[in-house]
Amino acid sequence: MSEGIGVGPRLTELARYVEVPRSTANLRVRMLMERGIVTGYRPEINWEELGYRINGYIGIECPKSAVDDLIEFLRKQEWAFGVWEATAGKYGLFVMCRFKQYSEIEELQTFTKPSKEFGMPSYSFLEHTRH
């Protein structure tokens, strides 16, 4: 069953992928749930249908002392869809962003309030892709 990790939340897809009947896949998944190994199913969101056609990442240089407060701040931002702390390299944080239009990226480039508040020397918009 571990071969089917990432296949999708539908038992029919999982059963087809691991080449077992759907009833067998159902039984095995139920046993994994009872043991606490499988804890739920996640929906797959079509971000383009919601209007988010531009994806990107921001690398933020920040002092270690500001990381927790900055993460809390970023989690409240509508455009931030994931925040990760880096353990090595130039950036202390990476932020996954989604935008509906390019003008939102331009607004983000004036993102200076947190710079002063959190003692951030800079941020860089690392990449953006349009779908």
Helices, strands, pairings?
Elements lengths: L10 H8 L3 H13 L19 E8 L5 H9 L4 E6 L7 E7 L2 H7 L4 H6 L3 E9 L1
Helix pairs in contact: 1-2
User: What is the level-2 CATH architecture name of the largest domain?
Assistant: 2-Layer Sandwich
Write down how many β-strands occur, each being a DSSP E stretch of 2 or more residues.
4
Question: So, the CATH homologous superfamily of the largest domain?
Answer: Lrp/AsnC effector binding domain/regulation of amino acid metabolism (RAM) domain
Determine the fraction of residues in helical runs and give it as a percent range.
25-40%
Classify the oligomer. single chain
Strand content: 15-25%
Structural class: alpha+beta
Order of helices and strands: HHEHEEHHE
* Mass-distribution shape: elongated
CATH class of the largest domain: Alpha Beta
Poorly predicted regions are 1-7
Report on the biggest sheet. 4 strands, antiparallel
CATH topology-level fold name of the largest domain:
Alpha-Beta Plaits
Structural summary, described in words:
- The chain is α+β, with helices and mostly antiparallel strands.
- The chain has 2 domains: 2-34, no CATH class; 54-130, Lrp/AsnC effector binding domain/regulation of amino acid metabolism (RAM) domain (Alpha-Beta Plaits, 2-Layer Sandwich).
- The chain contains 5 helices and 4 strands; from the N terminus they run H-H-E-H-E-E-H-H-E.
- Strands 2-3-1-4 form a 4-stranded antiparallel sheet.
- Strand 2 (80-85) and strand 3 form a beta hairpin.
- Helix 1 crosses helix 2.
- The longest helix has 13 residues, at 22-34.
